[in-house]
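#onboarding

Welcome to the new folks! Below is a worked example of what a typical request in this channel looks like: someone posts a single protein sequence, and someone else replies with the predicted structure as tokens. Don't worry about understanding the tokens yet, we'll cover that in week two.

Example request:
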Amino acid sequence: MKKLFYFFVALLVVACSSGPAPSDVAAQAAKEYYAQLLSGKYDHYVDGFYRPDSIPNNYRQQLIDNAKMFLAQQKNDRRGILDVRVVNAMADTAKRSANVFLLFAYGDSTSEEVVVPMVMHKGVWYMR
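Example response:
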């Protein structure tokens, strides 16, 4: 959990500097959330979703179980997700939102492009 926290602190520093564009930071955050999912860190993936309020522990556990089932289904249907790449990202800094386009490469040699809506809250990009 500490590594994930430091990752987001680094993202915050990068976002506040005159460095990379907000769309690039949002894209890297989205890719990192999915990297956490693929590495089996389901709780980190679930914590990457924006929630303005806290949620009960049993609901959080259900979300973690859903993430596990999603990966199991992908493994069953397409031999799993092998790689996640950023295709494009577009940020609207006035609305503090972005759309990140990721390309999932599956084990059966197919690929799929998905859009991940992102929102910035207190300098951190979260999935919506």
